[in-house]
Design a protein that fits this description.
- By secondary structure, this protein is an alpha/beta fold.
- It has 12 helices and 18 strands.
- Helix content is about 25%, strand content about 20%.
- The strands form 3 sheets. Strands 1, 2, 3, 4, 5, 15, 16, 17 and 18 form a 9-stranded mixed sheet that branches. A 6-stranded parallel sheet has the order 9-10-11-12-13-14.
Length: about 450
């Protein structure tokens, strides 16, 4: 079967149907899952058009709702073409692009339109877009909702780029009033500046120096603010890239009090820990920081208990020079980790050892992420009526990450040389074969996902 061709049916001995892995045939029509039949349920006449993948696992494609594509304006860092190819190679069938670090950022209706124009004809997988909340742009929020953004992101601390300033409490109240009743969601980079008690003159090449400069209390303080706002306004709120387990109690208490609050963590917080980061290895720098192994196990426990809702890449690439690899100075290096292509095997390598099942992978990497951005009626589930977005992969097979098989524009990643479990064989987006064994379809077949008006939006 040629890359780019339409797949009419997929057969496997291991299809994840609900919670169960069993032999099945997925019948596809007009880009959607039409029916799921037992392995014997297809007539001989139909069988000739079936893509038989043996005992590879077939499940919903990954929905990665935290990706920095950086186009327009910083395409030397990434870009839609390379980001979405890397996504396809990783079994990711939908990405949601963050409002920064593109120039301009997605903080006005005009900027949103410009971003969509830039992305047109460049996406190998389906792509949705977050808007941004910055000081003074509250009157742009409703027009952007009507234009189809998935929701909005803000920072409670310097974002790392000057064109996306962080918000004050006053800005947040203004934004919340605009979002009330829209059904939209506000995402928070949840760190706040605090009075530093530690020495600030440590060796900048030691990871511990950087880690001490972003203590857990910065996340705790920020999340205290988020929970109060969420309860006050009853607007959906979401905490991105939780790295510290310390605020989990706050989050649980707010939810029990009725806050419509969700939280994600990332593959790097679950796979990497501070004790193993070598001196000068700035490819490990991100904000909030990778913390210690005890904290990491607490994140895994919270994930298992349902206290953390989903896992994302927070793919945040840059050009190699910005990582300051030659000087190894953590204080000067860009904070961000590239992992869009490797999220599924990164998660499975660690999760499978901790008793997580394939159904947990789908829930945490596809269903809950689709739900966050109001795509759960068409993405993230293997069921009739849903888009035929499938990842076909071998969870038992091992591979090593090497520069040659990294499809991100820049190959800097802390995972180079790491052996992982779980090889993506093929990726299908809305019934089209977009990736197979290292090769891509000749043209981008992804589309823009504009989020339809949600509930309670009559007053808009």
């Amino acid at each position: 079967m040629e890359l780019g061709s339409t797949v009419r049916a997929v057969r496997s001995q291991r299809v994840l149907v609900g919670e169960e892995v069993k032999p099945a045939v997925i019948v596809i029509k007009d880009g959607k899952i039409c029916q799921i039949l037992s392995d014997r349920g297809l007539s001989a006449a139909d069988a000739c058009e079936v893509l038989d993948v043996g005992d590879s696992v077939v499940m919903p494609g990954v929905v990665d709702c935290h990706v920095h594509v950086n186009e327009p304006g910083r395409t030397s860092w990434e870009g839609f073409w390379t980001a979405t190819r890397a996504a396809a190679a990783g079994g990711v069938t939908t990405i949601v692009d963050m409002p920064l670090n593109s120039i301009p950022p997605t903080t006005t209706l005009g900027n949103f339109n410009e971003k969509q124009q830039e992305a047109t004809g460049q996406c190998f997988v389906d792509t949705a877009f977050w808007g941004g909340v910055i000081p003074g742009n509250e009157l742009e929020l409703r027009p952007m909702i009507q234009a189809g953004v998935a929701g909005f992101k803000c920072f409670l601390i310097h974002s790392g780029v000057d064109e996306f300033p962080h918000v004050t409490d006053s800005d947040l109240h203004s934004a919340m009033k605009q979002l009330q009743g829209t059904g939209s969601v506000l995402l928070f980079h949840a760190e706040r500046e605090v009075q530093q008690t530690s020495e600030e003159n440590g060796d900048p090449c030691q990871y511990s120096t950087f880690l001490q400069s972003r203590p857990d209390v910065m996340e705790v303080e920020a999340i205290q603010t988020v929970t109060e706002l969420c309860l006050q306004y009853q607007v959906r709120c979401h905490i991105v890239h939780l790295s510290s387990a310390k605020p989990l109690k706050l989050i649980q208490e707010a939810r029990q009090a009725g806050a419509p609050l969700t939280v994600e963590t990332t593959h790097h917080y679950l796979s990497l820990c501070a004790e193993n980061i070598p001196s000068g290895a700035t490819q490990f720098k991100c904000c909030p920081p990778i913390r210690g192994s005890i904290n990491q196990e607490q994140l895994w426990s919270a994930l298992k208990a349902g206290q953390i809702d989903m896992v994302v890449s927070d793919h945040s690439p840059c050009t190699p020079d910005l990582k300051k690899l030659e000087s190894g100075d953590f204080t000067q290096a860009w904070g961000g980790i590239s992992s869009l292509q490797f999220g599924l095997p990164l998660f499975w390598t660690s999760a499978s050892k901790r008793g997580f099942q394939l159904s947990d992978v789908v829930r945490l990497l596809s269903q809950k992420t689709a739900q966050l951005c109001s795509l759960d009626h068409q993405k993230g589930s293997l069921a009739p009526g849903y888009d035929a977005d499938l990842v076909i992969w071998d969870p038992e097979r091992e591979f090593k990450i090497e520069e040659a098989n990294v499809h991100h524009k820049n190959k800097v990643t802390p995972y180079l040389g790491v052996a992982l479990q779980g090889v993506v064989c093929s990726t299908i987006v809305r019934g089209r074969l977009v990736y197979r064994e290292g090769s891509f379809c000749p043209e981008p077949l992804g589309k823009h996902l504009l989020i339809p008006q949600r509930r309670n939006q009559a007053q808009l």
